[in-house]
Amino acid sequence: LGAVCVAAEAFVPSASALPSKQPTLMKRIGRNPAAGAPAGPLAPVLMTASEGAAPEPAVAGEAPLAKLWQAAKVPVFITLWYLFNIGYNISNKKALNALDLPWTIALIQLVGGLLYVFPLWLTGLRKAPKLSMDNVKTLTPVASMHLGTHIGAVISLGAGAVSFTHIVKAGEPVVSALLSAVVLKKYFSLPTYLSLIPVVAGVGLASAKELSFTWLGFAAAMLSNVSSACRGIYSKKTMTGKPLGENLTAANMYAVLTIIATVILTPLALAIEGPRIGPVWEAAMASGLSAQAVIKDVLMSAVYYYLYNEVAFLALEQVNPVTHAVANTIKRVVIIIAAIIAFGTPVTFLGSLGSGIAIFGVLLYSLAKQKFDK
To answer: How many whole angstroms separate alpha carbon 260 and alpha carbon 258?
Structure first.
C-alpha cells in the first residue's frame, strides 16, 4: 500500500499540471523538528518550500482521479506514516530482542533504504541527484549526525522498552533550545521556555517510575536527541546558502545522507559487532527462535524505517506547522500505546502520567514556537 501511494504521488498529477513546489535550501536545512519540520531521523534537515502553507487547492481542469488524490492524499499519507512507524518500532524491537546486535541491525536498516531508492534512480522514476566531491564533504558532517540520531535510537530501543525510548526522545526540544542558545546565541520567548517545564518534568517522572529503566537506554536516547539537535544547529550555522548539487529534493537529500551514513557505519558496525554476529545468531537459534522469523523482523524493520520517513515527507509538506505539531504528538502517543500492547510492557500510573505530561509539553512547545518565535 505504501509503495502504491508513493507511486501515485509521482504518477497522478493533474491533466493541467499542478503547481510545482521546488524545495529550497533555506527551508530544507536547519529547522527545529518541534517547530513543524518533518518528523523522523532527518527532521531538522529536510524542509520544502511548501512549509507552513495549506494544502494546495484543486486546479481547474484537473482529471477526476487527480482531484480525488488531492483530497485523499494527506489523510492517506498521515495514516501510512503512523502505520509504518508502528511497524518499524515493533519489528525493530523484535529483531533486537532476538539479536543483541544494534549496530548491525541499524546498518541493515540503512542499506535497506538504498535498495529502495537505487531502483527509482536507475529506472528514472525519480531524478537521481548530482553531487560534486565538495558537496559530499559539505554533507558528511550532517550525515554523521543523522547516523548518531539513528544509532542512538536503535541502541536505546534494544536496551529498554519502546515506550521509554520515545518518552526520552520527547525531550529533544529541551536539548535543541539549550544548544541553540549556547551555539547560535538564539534565544526564544518566555512562553516557549516555560513550555519546556512540563517536558522536563514529564520525562523525569516517567524515567524515575519506568520499570524497564536502564542507563544505557536513557543515554542512547539522549545521544539520539543531541545528535538530532546538533544536526539542525550545524546546518543553520555552516550550510545555509551553500550549493549542494542538483535534483536534491527532500527525498533525494534524505537518500544521499543515508548513503553517506551507511559508508560511515559499515566499518564501525563490523569492528564493534563483526566477531559477535556468528555466536549471537547461534545463540538465538539455540533458544528456539525461527531463523525465518528473525530474518523477517530484521528486513521488515529496514523496509518500515525507510518508508515511514519517505511517507512523512510526502505528508508533512502538505500541512501547516500547527497541523504537523498535533499529528506528530498523536503519532508518538499511538506508537507508545501500540508498543505497550504488542509487548505487554508493564506501566505504572506515575510513569503513564509522566509520559502524558511530557508529550503534552512537546505539543505546547511546538505551538508556542509557532506563535511567539517565528
So the answer is: 5
Its pTM stands at 0.77
User: How far is the C-alpha of 236 from the C-alpha of 226, rounded, in Å?
Assistant: 15
Helix axes 133-159, 250-273, angle to 10 degrees: 60
Nearest to 348 by CA among 142, 177, 172, 167: 167
Tens digits of residue pLDDT in 286-335: 999 999 999 999 999 999 998 888 887 777 667 666 666 677 778 888 88
User: pLDDT per residue over 252-283, tens digit each?
Assistant: 888 999 999 999 999 999 999 999 999 999 99
Give the three-class secondary structure for 130: strand
Task: Assign 23 to helix, strand or coil.
Answer: coil
| Measured distance CA(273)–CA(281) in Å, rounded | 12
Q: Which DSSP state fits 319?
A: S
Backbone angles phi, psi at 246, to 5 degrees: -110, 155
* AA letter at 111: V
Tell me 128's DSSP state. Answer: P
Q: Reduce the secondary structure of 248-273 to three states and give it as a string.
A: CCHHHHHHHHHHHHHHHHHHHHHHHH
What b-and-e string marks burial along 31-48, b requiring 16 or more CB atoms within 10 Å of the CB? bbbbbbbbbbbbbbbbbb
8-state DSSP, 34: G
Per DSSP, 214 falls in state -
202 φ, ψ to 5°?
A: -65, -45
C-alpha distance from residue 266 to each of 36, 101, 227, 280 (Å): 32, 13, 19, 19
Kindly give, in sequence order, each residue whose CB lies less than 8 Å from that of residue 196, ignoring residues fewer than 6 positions away: 173, 174, 177, 361, 365
Angle of CA points 289, 294, 295, to nearest 5° = 140
In eight-state DSSP terms, residue 235 is: I
Count CA atoms closer than 13 A to 326's CA, side-chain side: 4
Place of cell 544536526: 231
Give the DSSP letter of residue 184.
I
Answer for the pair 10, 120: CB distance below 8 angstroms, yes or no: no
Per residue in 51-70, is it b (16+ CB within 10 Å) or e — as a string?
A: beeeeeeebeebeeebeebb
Is 104 in contact with 277 (CB distance < 8 Å)?
yes
Backbone angles phi, psi at 316, to 5 degrees: -80, -15
